[in-house]
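Justification of resources, computational component.

The compute hours requested in this renewal are based largely on the per-chain cost of generating structure records like the one below. Each record pairs the submitted sequence with a full structure-token output. That output is archived, and it is also reused by downstream analysis tasks.
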Amino acid sequence: GALRVLHPGLLGLLAAVVAIQLAGDRPSAPAVAVLAAAGAVGVAFAWAYRRWGPVRLWLRYLSIGAVVFLVAFVALSPVRRLVVPPPIEPVAASAADRPDVVVLVLDELPLLELVTTDGDIDAERYPGFARLAATSTWYRNATTSSAWTVLAVPSLLSGTYPTYELGPMAADYPNSVFTLLGGSHDLNVWESVTRLCPDSLCPDTGARPSVLRQVQGLLTLSGQIIRQRTSPFEEVERRMQFEASGPAASRPDQFRAFIESVQPGDRPSLDVLHVGLPHQPYLTMPSTAPHDGPDTPPGLVDGYSWLHELAAGAGRQAHVYATQATDHLLAELLDHLEASGQLDDTMLVVTADHGVAFDPDLPYRAMTPANGDLVAYPPLFIKYPGQRSGVTSDIAAETVDIVPTIADVVGIDAPWAFDGVSLRDEAAVAGSPQRFRPIWVDALEAGPDGFAVLDAVPFDERVGRNRAVIEQVAGDEALATLPGGRDLVGADVADLRVDPTPAGGATLGFAGRERVVRPGARIPAFVLIGFDRPPAGSVAVAVDGRVVLTGAAAVVDGLQPSFWGLLPEEALPEGAHEVEVYEVLGEPGAEELRPFEVRSQR
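The structure output for this chain reads:
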């Protein structure tokens, strides 16, 4: 019957999948040839199964392997420590006379994003960080140990350098800030992509993603792996990311929920939040309100590089807005700690796992000598108990030094060795090189121990050689002037020369031309414009008759000429608004605008 046809067919399909695997991750033959050869193998195996008894007998014996392989996978492989995790006990220490500790770990934030060309925190754009710097120690030369969250965060929260073979979980990192303070402090832990706090110390309080979301993420990841492993048309990733930090639009809510959970008590507390801010896809406006942009930044190719100048510039603009939202939330945290009477005596650590770069000629976050100033140097601020004035430190700090510094401040001797040192011991810091664990995409040469030693570039030198990067978004007008844009932001269209001759047709996607801002709803700030022909000059976008965004359209072979970016939040107060698109011609100071005939596409 049908089973006699279906069973050999299924076996033939599995044989074809195995044949594709034998071709390797990146076969030298064309994908069509690999697929044809695999199909031939599948047909031959199905025919052999139908015709030859020894093949059928071999498969019967092989069926035992399903049970054997499962038992071996669960009991003998490294997965065993997840199924039967080893017992983890906290350091035995009294709670007496120990300060509260608050650790805030941000994501994808380079230090240079926060500063002006003078090397100061940009207090106008980031008042929260400026306020923090005024009452804490700012380690301006601090480096991370990895540009990848699943390596950087465990290193940061354990005080040890990351290792490829270890997962971001308590079973692999039993010695961490959580076991260090678990005996003396009450723990309030909000992890996003790691599980470093043992379940015995951090029972699930709802801060972690729901089981349904974790299962959905696991199924999505499994589907990606199966697709890449079975399709000769796709390259096989050597790493896979399991994103468990929640939708980008909900991350401010997570931050605020954490703030409310930080409360004084009878015992000292350790409050830790790792939040995916300002991490892409950058769906947050400066006020922390969500906007309607896409779930993946346009032009970010495979999460590794920017397609062109527009993609990098628009990505940078969205990142700055998300960083302003992060600053807003940081200020709320400081307000909360001050109102609860905890701020003065608390040890507060604010840092990020790594930075990112917005340059089409450089990787987005894969570490290279050219983008190290942006990727390897996250911000690091530590407000020590009782500290009320700002201090700037230029010692060669590392994020791996954070936990040893916490141990030093709270007065607990860890019964294990750290790779980092206390930042209060400047002599020890001076004798410790800044090390970085490169992975396969990082263009750094590792030594025999698997680490690269970073060149210690002084802060002032990093600011100086990245002056153009900083100036690119200096001020609100510059932030809304994307690459190739004109100096028109803030100008009323009525005050400019306008040739009413249409420049051509254009399609305005997402919220379209007529936009309505409603209380509590996503702000319709994202504009995506497709042009019927490449614009002859720059593009200007006006809201209610005022230019609020300019830049050059991206013209890529085989793709529709396009332009995108975010409308400033102040241009979209509650109510109805009209968006107009212009082509900008002429010399600077003598610009002439020609309107596009805009069609809305939603």
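The first helix runs from residue 2 to 22. The first strand starts at residue 101 and ends at 106.
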